[in-house]
Task: structure prediction
Amino acid sequence: MKIKKQKINRLVWLEIKNGDDLPDAITGYCQKNNIKAGLVLAVGALKNAKVSFYDQVKRKYLVKAINRPLELLSCLGNVSLRDGRPFIHAHITVADKAGRVYGGHLEPGSIVFACECAIMEATGELLNRKFDKLTGLNLWDFGK
Ligand code: ZN
Result:
């Protein structure tokens, strides 16, 4: 098993406003501030969500829109590099008024009602994404 080592530098709380697109806001912060590595954590509420499921046979993301108010129970993700630029990979779990829970890979089009979001910025050995033939995904390249 190969590893990469990083050090958590600081915790940054992001102001994400009502009406903002959640993944775009996080990606925008990281790209603007050149955050190349880190952890993303958030809770709050969404006006609507867009999540996807990776079909491992068809090798494509199936996108699902949940067009109603939702509690954002959890958003957990990471920051690494793709094509040399900060790239966010995050998953969310949301609940509707009836308590039904949905989740998946966070997609643009997930609109914030209110959100408390933190990024634990890290530095050290960088993780770069590279196309992986076996899965069809852009995965972390740990080298040969
Ligand atoms: Zn994912």
In short: The mean pLDDT is 98. Residues 22-32 form the longest helix (11 residues). Residues 18-123 form a domain with the 60s Ribosomal Protein L30; Chain: A; fold (CATH 3.30.1330.80).
